[in-house]
Amino acid sequence: MIRLFLLLLCLAVPAIAAPAVPVAAAADLRLALPPLVRGHEAQMGTRFNLSFGSSGQMVQQALNGAPFQLLLLADASHADRLAAAVPGVERRPYALGRLALVATRASGITDLASLKAAIRAGRIRHLAIANPAHAPYGVAARAVLAGMGITAPLVLGENVAQALSFVSTGAAEAGLVALPLARVAGGGLIVVPLLPALHPPLVQTLVLMPGASPAARGLADRLTSPIGRAALARAGFGLP
Prior knowledge:
The chain is an alpha/beta fold.
């Protein structure tokens, strides 16, 4: 009996000690990705360590040696940058990012035209977007503002989730953020989905690093499978 117990213990130790697979994900996936990952973990018996942030920062971390096996980026340009620097990476589009205008109900904003009017009237002191220097949603937001001729004092979030938090906490009266996050933000915010034609497309692209484990590849396959695509569509993403 003791020998059998020790044998079972030895067989169990490798599974317990197996390190989690490091995955970097764009901040707009903060709500949509964990349920997909949990389902994959339960099915495959693999653990994943998710890190959320702006695409530009995560690519830079990967270039600096961060051991990400899979990166789920918010646009194609950052995936191209990584591919140019690291031979052998694999790229796949997995979603289309969607922007939304969010505003406090007290602001009276209902669309981009009323946002512009409120800014001109001095009712909007701060408009939140993700930092365009490294966040694709910030680049898209800036394109929308430029196209509408909207100028306002900007509050820049490190990523799109932080930009949304500025509006949720009242640090900014309005913002342009990711629709999948805005839809479940709560807090009495007004959420107005924006037409994709107002900005360059956010072709969200995953990157499998050279030597990525079968577990990382399996998660990439799940994300681009009918199950993953349906989950992303329900969350508010477009599909490539």
